[in-house]
Structure formats: C-alpha cells, structure tokens
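Question:
Now give any protein.
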Amino acid sequence: MGKIIEMISDCYEQGYSTQQFKDMVISKLTPLFSNKDNAEKYWTTAEMLSVFEFIIRYHHDETFMQFLQEVLTTYRAALECNSENVMQIFCDSLFDFSQKENMMWTVRENVKQVNSDDYDESVIRYMKHIGDTLEIGTKHIIAELYAIVLIADGKTPDYEKIQRFDFGVNIQNILAQGKFQGMLLTDPIKIKLSDWRNIAYHHTYRIIDKDTIVCTYGKKQQTFSISFDELLQYTYQIVKASNILNIARSIFVYDYDEKIADHRSAHGHTPIRFRPSILEENLRTSMMSMGFNLSKVEVNDNTAVAVITDLRNNGELGKDEQIMRHIHASQFLYHLWNTYRKREVCIIYYSASGQFIFSCSVEGSVCERIGRDKELSYMAQFVSYDYGVEE
C-alpha cells in the first residue's frame, strides 16, 4: 500500500481538497461498477484506493483497461447466468483468498529489494518475483476464473475438481474457450503464464552473459533467449496480468456486496483472516484518503486505539471547517472497529503541527449495528469526546 499512500500524500501536498480528491477517485471507479452508488460508498477502502492507484499507474497502457473490462464482463455474465453458483464459489474461497493475500504481503515487501548491483543476483530475484507472483498471487484466481468462464457459458463446473487441476491446465482450458489470450500469454514470445512460473520456480534458466538468459520450458524442453531488459518487460506483463485479475475480483466483490452478504448470511459465515500488518496498512490507507495520517495503532483484548494527525488542519481552517474535520475523524471509529472488532475503539486526534486536539471513543456494540440495521450516522449520538489535555 506504500505507493497509494505516497500518491494520496502528494495530492494533498499539491493543494487538493478532500472533496477534490474524493471526486477524482470516484470518477475513475464509477465506470467499473454496475452498481454506481457503490463506487462512492466504498471509495475510502484500501482495496478501492488500490484500484485507483493501479488505474493511474497503468494509464499509458491501453491493454490494462481493456483486459480489466474483459474480466469484469465475464464475472457479470456468469452472475447473470447463475447467481447462486457464482456466490457459492466466491464465499467458499474467502478464507483461502485471504491467506494468499497474507502471503502476497511478503512478496510485495520483497520486491522493494529486487534490484541488485550484482547482475546474476538481479536476474535471480526477478525470476523469484515472477514465480511468487504467479504461484501465490495468480494461480488460485485462475482456477476461479475458469469456473466463472464455464458458468458464463451456461455450464455447472465442479469447482473443487478445478482447484486440483495444474496451473497450466486451467490456463489452457480458459484459452480453449477463446478467453483472455492477450493476458494469459506473454508477448512477443507466446508462452503461458504457467510456463513462466515453471521457469522461475524450477530454475530452468541459464545466465549466459549480460545480454543472454536462456529459458527452457514444457515437456518438449523448448528454449528461448532473452536479454535482461526483455526480462524486465516480461516481468511487467506478468505482474500486470496478476494485478488485473486481483483488482477485477476486488471490484466485483464491492460492486455486489449485498448479494455476497446475503449469501453469507443464508449459508453461514466463511472466516477471513488477515495478518496484523495488512489490517494496519489498510486502515492507514483509508484514513489517508481523507487527509489523516495514522501514526500508530495500539490493540489489546478489549480496545483498539488509533493515533492520527490531520494533515488538513494546519491552523488556518475556519471554525466550520474544523468542526467538519473533527466529524470526519470521528467517523473513522467505525473503520477502526471494523478492522479490529474490539469492545471499545478510540481515536486520538492531533493537528498538522502536532498539537493534541481531542480524543473520541465509542462502544463496539454500537458499531456492530452499522451495516446490519443502521447507517453510519447512527454512531454519532454515542460518540464520546474529550477535549482535555492529553495525559
């Protein structure tokens, strides 16, 4: 999430107001949603801000939006054809998908050290990044996508059986349906993403010199040669394909949140578990979207406390603007509870200059009703404020 936070921070440093930033994000998200109101409803979530960051990152790449729309269209076609089957597949795999996300956190952290002054080490690290991205961040989505393709075609897939198929088999089955060739095959060397995974994970590549890396793949032991610069280009294509698959699924989840919630309610809740570092970073990203910098979070058995700095409150705000900033900050009590699900949640608020302004808190039982039978505004009457001197 570091790139997202940097992007948001840059926008505010350039003078964007929170409303201007909100409008910019929503304008990019709305065309991707069928339920347009959900783009605004969820724009402050880390997942949707991540989608926004990807749209900006790939703005120069015309195929990015083309492939993203293609995947979304397929998911929606499947939903229209057999909503119950699609919802069952989504909800059954929630825990497994959350576990993959936990693993991908480490992959994303490792990519920060992918470059090296040692040429051989750089090749090895890029190959490892390719392998990890495909094995951990892509393989399971490809299995789901094949099931979705079959549903969209009017079939009833055996999803458990599909999940046991080899990575390459699922990709080949999707390609056989005439789907996603530009995304699942690299260019100009037309090999499947699964072949790249095998090359990277089985180390079937030889570093000849700085201009020649010989790769071997497939049962027929086919070979091709690439330079280091070409390796970087293929890495770009592979990571882009993985990003598209992940954010398309994320958009679909938020677009059809009510259908998924209804299905989970009717069939029991599938557990989801995210590692603490992901929870905190997601919360930090959401808060930054409104100009609040999350300094730290302290969590124990009963409470969760977030310390935030208001980057917009620089001492020059009028009284009405300050009141609105205080309200916006207190609304993140629900985000804090939704992240940690504690008996009580508290936010300690500082101005941009580091001056303590207030703390606010609310009982978790109040937050629990929001989204179930109450709107976010319900929480306001129960929030306690303390404008005294910080202890």
Observations:
- The mean pLDDT is 92.
